[in-house]
Amino acid sequence: MAWSRRTFLRKTGLAGAGAAVGGLAGVLDGCAIAQNYDVIIRGGRVIDGTGAPPVIADVAIAGDRIVKIGPVRGTGTTTIDASGKIVCPGFIDIHSHTDLSLLVNPRAESKIRQGVTTEVAGQDGSSLAPLTEDRLKALQEGYGRRYGVDIEWTDFNGLFDTLEQQGVGVNFISMAGQGTIRGFVVGNENVPAGARQIDAMKALVDQAMSEGAWGLSSGLEYTPGSFADEDEIAELCKVAAGYNGFYATHMRNEDDYLVEAVREAISTARKGEIPLQIAHFKASGRRNRDKVGVAFEMIEQAVGEGMEITLDRYPYIAYATTLQNLFPTRFRAGGAEAFVNRLQSPDVLPGMRRAAIEKVDMLGDWSAVMITSVARTENQDYVGRRVSEIVAASGQDPFEFVRELLIAENGSVGMVGFGMSEEEIRSVLTHPLVMVASDGGAAADYGPLSETTPHPRYYGTFPRVLGKYSREDGLFDLPTAVHKMTDMPARKLGLSDRGTVGVGLAADLVVFDPDTVIDRADFMNPHQYAHGIDFVLVNGSVVIENGEHTGALAGKVLRKQTGAV
Fold this sequence. Notes:
The protein is of the alpha/beta class. 34% of the residues lie in helices and 19% in strands. Strands 1, 2, 3, 4, 5, 18, 19, 20 and 21 form a nine-stranded mixed sheet that branches.
């Protein structure tokens, strides 16, 4: 099957509002009476998000809406000269982990400075609601105490109210986490859910959707969500589908069993009668790279049969996860304490060693594993270093180092795994079903969020696609790159008023320099803001002005419209 953009839009039903009105050429109006506006962006090359070529035009804003696409006569309280620059919709990060960090720094510095105006959080099966009393207490005593933030909610209404009362610099959307919900009802054990437990989980999905969640997410490489089979997950999907939600999955495997994991994801969505989003799609490990093509053939066949399937990907050769993820889920059942106990059990340890070493061999060697976060002061020197480097001086067995570190940190250690290649990235990013997402949270180069070593995707995802992969490598033209960041995710979400540039739509806009935009963060020095993002507007307010944050907290919590269909 030849997958042109037109074929993709027809098959997926994702043709957006901007495309429906024939692009910007159909709305340009040269005859108008001079008026006063809140903001006028003058003389930019407007890329509307639909994939259409740029059009030179002015954009006028009143309040939080675009009210005219020029030429615009009149004056603006704020006027932005966009000559030689691109004006496009704000980027929608459809797979984000900007959840709790908004309570620490509501400016969302690393995201807004790369042009992201809407974050879709609650991913990988883990959301900030619903919370059991034990989970609430753990968050309060862990994240809350560490960063000095108040965590008092137990449901999505409480979470959304908290963010609205505080104020946020970006628009915020949340999925409902299947793993969080399973933990609420079944707990952390590797046991099948009974009929009553499935009914209880379905009720929690219904509550989450009625409170404004946008769909169901799963993280099937993480506990306890991984203990559910596809039939159980499909039952929850049916509830989310009743609210026009979608199913976003971090699949059960992204390396040796990638094809089987894709088959399961498709089957689950088909049974749940729900649109599917495959998160951070990748083939990790050199021996698995040929599986990308096989997986896409399966996906294209399912789309041809009438399913709605899209994917997202970040533009880096390494993924971020926890060090526990070197071990199969059977060793992680029961939570952190049980996992750490197994690391100290003479009966279980040999099997854990074999499994972890097999995982590392798939990546290459221990130089593919970088430590990114720890809690204990005495272990901070390991952050930002690869395991092979850490053990080189002492001659310590690398597995023993990892085991001792996990025990000392009670199982909570962050890692980056270098498992992909540039060729693999290109083969995924260029597919018309794939949109751009960061799989990262918001950080800052100051304050408490600067004290960790995050994946550079926190800072550079979207400018990296624009600068490296579009301008420098020529993988796709600029309108296609912007489309993968704006209209595509908006249509997946069902956001009718964002993702394109059009009269009457929300004024989430980015002004960037196409000749200089680029990411600057790297794995050793991630706290570096992107270059070339000059202005960012959120709901009509200028949040980034000449590359600097204005302090405006203009974001909104976007609650999905309630009421089952």
